[in-house]
Amino acid sequence: MTPRWKEAILTWIGVNVTAVALTFTLSSLIAGWPWFAGFLAFNTAMVAGLTWCVMPALTRLFGHRLEALHGDPTDDHRRPDPAQRQNHHE
After folding, report:
1. How far apart are CA 20 and CA 5, in angstroms?
2. Distance between CA atoms of residues 88 and 77, nearest Å
3. Are 81 and 12 contacting, i.e. CB atoms less than 8 angstroms apart?
4. Domain residues of the chain, as ranges?
5. 3-class secondary-structure state, position 17
6. Mean pLDDT of all residues in 67-76
7. For the chain, percent of residues with pLDDT exceeding 70
8. Which of 14, 28, 62, 75 has the fewest CB atoms nearer than 10 Å to its CB?
9. DSSP letters along 34-54, please?
């Protein structure tokens, strides 16, 4: 299971890369739009870009570094998988 701090860093990288790319490409196209329409267009492009392009690419690129080492103390905050919990009522 991937530690959340690694997920947060990877997401931060992805958001920054996508925001910079969209600022240089989309901003000039939506410059004359009403504020809210531009806001929705930018955020829609941000979510789509992250979901289908940027995050899959970053996951492939850094996938070998995402998994926690067995016994990694930085991963202790995660709740155990319900399927792996033992039934204590037996």
Report:
1. 23
2. 21
3. no
4. 4-67
5. helix
6. 59
7. 74
8. 28
9. -HHHHHHHHHHHHHHHIIIII
Of 82, 81, 83, 78, nearest in space to 7 by CA = 78
Calculate the CA 44 to chain-centre distance.
Answer: 15
Residue whose pair of structure tokens reads 């016994």 in the numeric block: 71
Give alpha helix (H) positions in the chain: 4-25, 27-30, 35-49, 55-66
Q: How confident is the model at residue 70 (pLDDT cuts 50, 70, 90)?
A: low
The pLDDT of residue 79 is above 70: no
**Rounded Cα–Cα distance for residues 61 and 81 (Å):** 27
**CA 34 – CA 11 distance, rounded (Å):** 29
Per-residue pLDDT tens over the stretch 27-44: 999 999 999 999 999 999
Mean model confidence pLDDT for the chain: 85
Pair of tokens at residue 42: 């930018």
Distance between CA atoms of residues 73 and 37, nearest Å: 45
